[in-house]
Amino acid sequence: MGVKADKIFVNLPVKDLNKSVDFFTKVGFEFDAQFTDENATCMVVSEHIFVMLLVEDFFKTFTNKEISDTAKSTEVIVALSVDSKEQVDEIVNRALNSGGQPSKEPMDQGFMYGWSFQDIDGHLWEVFHMDANAVAQG
After folding, report:
1. In this structure, are strands 8-14 and 49-55 parallel, antiparallel, or unpaired?
2. Is there a contact between 62 and 21 (Cβ–Cβ < 8 Å)?
3. How many angstroms separate the CA atoms of 53 and 113, rounded?
4. Which residues face 8 on adjacent strands?
5. CA 85 to CA 53: how far, in whole Å?
6. What local confidence, expressed as pLDDT, does residue 99 receive?
7. Phi, psi at residue 114, to the nearest 5°?
8. β pairing state of 112-118 and 124-130
9. How much is the pLDDT for 90?
10. What per-residue confidence (pLDDT) applies to 132?
C-alpha cells in the first residue's frame, strides 16, 4: 500500500503577514483564527488543504536551508484545481487586481484550462480546471 495522507499543509514564508492575509483575503480565501498569531496564519483552501503563511524569521526555525529568493528562483508551484474555467479566471483576476503579478499566460488545452500568478511574496500559484469527462474519453 502506498503512502496516504488525510490533509496537506503547504508552508510558505512571507515578508509581511498582515499584507499577505490582506492579499489572500481579496483573492477570496479564509483563515483559521485558531492557528493565527503574529508569526503565522492558516489559510483554508478546502476541507483538506491548508497553506501556512509563516513570517520569514519563524519559517527559518523549520529549516537549516536558506529561503529561496522568489525574485530569482522557483522552489514550488502551488496548483489548485477548481470547478470551472470561469472560476480560474475569477481567482487569477482577483489576485492580479489585489497586487499579485502575472506569471504565465492562460493556457487552454481543450480538456484542461489554467492560468497562473505570483503572490505578493513571489510564490507561484496555478489555478486550473480539468474536464474529467474529456480526459476519460481521451
Report:
1. parallel
2. no
3. 27
4. 49
5. 27
6. 98
7. -150, 160
8. antiparallel
9. 97
10. 80
| Whether the Cβ atoms of residue 126 and residue 115 lie closer than 8 Å to each other | yes
Question: Among positive and negative, which fits the CA dihedral 17, 22, 27, 31?
Answer: positive
Q: Which residues pair with 78 in a beta bridge?
A: 125
86 grid coordinates: 470561469
Q: What is the mean pLDDT of each run of 10 residues along the chain (138 residues)?
A: 90 98 98 96 97 98 95 94 96 98 95 97 97 70
Instruction: Name 80's bridge partners.
Output: 127
The number of beta carbons lying within 10 Å of the beta carbon of residue 130 is 14
Nine-digit cell string for 132: 474529467
pTM of the predicted protein model: 0.90
Can you list the positions of beta strands (E) in the chain? Answer: 8-14, 30-32, 40-44, 49-55, 77-81, 101-108, 112-118, 124-130
Instruction: Give residues with Cβ within 8 angstroms of 71, minimum separation 6.
Output: 122
